[in-house]
Amino acid sequence: MTTVRQAIIEVLQTAGRPLPVQEITQQVLLMATNLKGKTPQHTVNSVLSTCSRFKRVSKGVYALSEWPEYEEFRKVTDIAYDILSEAGHPLAIPEITDQVVRERHMAPGSKNMIKQLLQKDSRFAQVAPGLFGLAQDCGGNQNKVGRKKS
Q: Is residue 58 a contact partner of residue 71, using CB atoms and an 8 Å limit?
């Protein structure tokens, strides 16, 4: 019997292009696989997001990792991390969010959501009101917004 991972690989190879999780799931269900349970799409999504053979190329869309023509979808916090690393110093929230919105082609209204994601990620530290830096550059003892001091 074909495993779910093997079936997903076959589905993507046959399509020759990235596919949405829902479409991958439909195709996998048509194959003789060990995909069982009440939520097959969650199972397929779990395999796609945890196996190195696949990469997310946009929201809910996956490709084979071996396809270089499709760039991996970057998380907002990873983009912000790169922005702060490149700057080499803390930046104001608008500086960070403007760059993230441009790179990810997000709606300008997403800026508050981006700030909330930074507050929840331990890689970032709020060094002053509205000013974020990398926790590693702040001596690791800065108060992380959204986290309790230990």
A: no
Rounded to whole angstroms, the Cα distance separating 25 from 134 reads 39
Helix axes 93-104, 111-120, angle to 10 degrees: 110
- In which residue are the tokens 């309790």 written? 148
Q: What does the pLDDT look like over 129-146, one tens digit per residue?
A: 999 999 998 765 444 444
Query: Which domains are seen in the chain, by residue range?
Result: 4-64 (1.10.10), 76-138 (1.10.10.10)
Q: What is the pTM of this model?
A: 0.60
Q: Which residues pair with 126 in a beta bridge?
A: 132
Query: What values do phi and psi take at 125, rounded to 5?
Result: -135, 140
